[in-house]
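Notes from the 1:1 (GR / supervisor)

We went over the backlog. Supervisor wanted to see one worked example end to end before approving the batch request, so GR pasted a single chain during the call. The sequence is below; no edits were made to it. Supervisor asked that the structure be written out right there so they could see what the output format looks like.
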Amino acid sequence: MKRTISYLLYILTIMLMTSCTDTPKNAQKVDKLPTIFPDYVGVTIPVDIAPMNFDYTGGTYDALNIVVKGSKSGEINESGNAIDFDIDEWHNLLKANRGGSLNFTLSVKTDGQWTQYKSFKMYVSKHALDEWGLTYRRIAPGFEIYSKMGLYQRNLSNFDEEPIIENTTVPGACLNCHTSNGTNPSHFTFHVRGSHGATLISINGKREWLKAKSDTLHGSMVYPYWHPSGQYCAYSTNQTHQSFHTVRSERIEVFDQASDIFVYKPSTHELLLDTLVMTDSHYETYPVFSPNGRTLYFCSSVAHPIPGGYKQIRYNICKVAFDPATGKLGQRVDTIFNARQMGKSATHPRPSYDGRYIMFTMTDYGCFPIWHHEADNWLLDLHTGKAQPLTVANSRNTDSYHNWTRNSHWFVFTSRRGDGLYTRLYISSIDDKGRATKPFLLPQRHPAQYYDRLFDSYNTPDFTLRPVELNAREAAKEISSDERVVTKAR
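Structure output shown during the call:
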């Protein structure tokens, strides 16, 4: 009797599943690609990325059917009201087709008639991300008042997102300039602006909150970058201001009236200052260490009167030797990329962890490219000294802040290519010849709905090897307590 009931339940389940599945019959084939959001046609993806769900945006419909076939093996066939791949099936298909491709065939049912669109491909790279996920800040695109914002982290193999810390725990605070050591969050730092200003230094779970400003610095400790040994962290100290344009095509300009760079040594709480990179004649900013830890790269511009000369502020990429044993800089600064000669400004250098490239953002002028429509990402080959724009990855709108995966095959960056207002996150890869692939928008389970309802901009993205462990409640208490570690200059 029990066996009979179980069998009947099984048959009923199959009938219900069959009745809910609407598969294409007598589909009319059209020789054009479907209109989808995001535009994932022809993108290259890593084997460990979340399902690349997309929405059909070509008009109203009754049902969708998607068939995904691997060039090596495997297939997914789903019907329903949305493209929502099962995570396990998706990852199994990607693993089976690593180094190959996936062929997507979308059929759309409207008024009882199926239309089958031209198939398109996604290419599965032989290189994995090899990172757990991303960290980033989400903030409403305002100018004067901090609404709800925070630092967040996202698992890139699925759609899970969680806050690292939000300013709702410390009202009025701005959380920014976060970074870990080569994507390893065991060394983590970020800056807090506001009435409880501070700079966090977290090493293997031990937190110290530094005074936000020092009498020996122009401003706060921002734009951090860890030395690969973890014994040092480079910062910039800036007197940053903003003003609004009166022309329609430009909105806001953020500029520095002074900026210097220095190195911080956490074990001794020392600010390692050097007049070589702290000059009155130049603005120095955006310091980063080379992967071997023996070079400090940074951006430098001739100082011009502000605000009158703000369009004359153009940064070159420079370097100076660094001795990890003593924490001392070398004797001279060398320019490795002269953007000023091109009438341009190069900012935000980020070396690939294999030591081959430096990615940077090129604009017409200034140091804050996120508000520049012309901003593009470029790649400097340290072996040849040649630089070129990442044409395939760039767009007609702002493309800026970027970071690498540890294996140096993938990078994430921010872009306003969607609507010109909100910065979103895109991921692209670099092939063996330094060529970028078509970038893809950060996947979401229901992307059109998600991005339409999201009124935050993403910025300062970085990859993370594993989740950042920070007790937000304890951190908030520590920020509000105003107990600070005092630094000393050397």
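Supervisor's comment: Residues 12 and 18 are 10 Å apart (CA to CA).
Batch request approved.
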